[in-house]
Specification:
Layout: H1 2-27, H2 30-44, H3 62-81, H4 88-102, H5 108-137, H6 142-161, E1 166-170, E2 173-177, E3 181-185, H7 193-209, H8 214-246, H9 248-277
Antiparallel strand pairs: 1-2, 2-3
Helix pairs in contact: 1-2, 1-9, 3-4, 4-5, 5-7, 6-8, 7-8, 7-9, 8-9
Amino acid sequence: MEDENKNLVLILLVLALFTGMAVEISEGSTTVGIILFLASVLLLTRINFKHLGNSGLLKKSKTYFVIGAFIVSADLYYNFKNGGELGTLDVMTLFFGASLIGTQLPNPQIERVSRFGMYISSVFVILYLIFYTMFAFFNIDFLHKFDHYLILLPTVGVLGLAGIPLEVIATETVRISGVEEMTMVIGGPCSGLYSMFLLIGIVYGYSRIEKMNVNKTLMMLGFCVAVAYISNLFRVIVLYLTAYYYGQGTMMLVHTHIGWIIFAAVAGVIMYFIELKR
């Protein structure tokens, strides 16, 4: 039991560091992002999943290694060719490719952790392609409605009850009249779907690794979605309050770091709850 609890702590630290790395590289400090990445890699080698060695998910094959290397190379080449920065989808695609490579390496620790990473990244990429790519292709206006009705209006309503005036001026935009006049757009990453996708990937991967039954897995997935949603409402409210009392500069600083910190805390609650229900 002590070894299992140690593994859970290490998993959460790795996920928090990795998520922080992705956020810092795309929105904050590249140097901080690299430090977080190196720290996460160091911790990866210390995780030992007792069931992963017998999962038989992927047979040893050069084909899987080549596929993983191709995914990593293709994504990096595409971004370099187009002069673009690595986005969240790119980071998770690279994570999937690297994890696929890792499952074929002779080191058992790297192989086991890579299988867990493959679950997380593949779930994220699939959900991203469904909600952001497929919905856009078929002109399904889910994301704007989700941002407006399930994120923006509830958070504005809560602060309205507290006497803080926020004016909704567009589907995903509010005007804040605090220490300075400014507008905030609540959309894209602010919808909280990225964190939700990651948490779903964590629960799904952990359920496969620890051989959880279907009912427990579905229950935990529902719990995961609910907690992720509520946590994002809290995050948006914190950003509103920061902008209202301290201005745009401080709000942007908080915006860069608060998301992955809350994600780490939420992941901890979910993993703890999973252990109680096992």
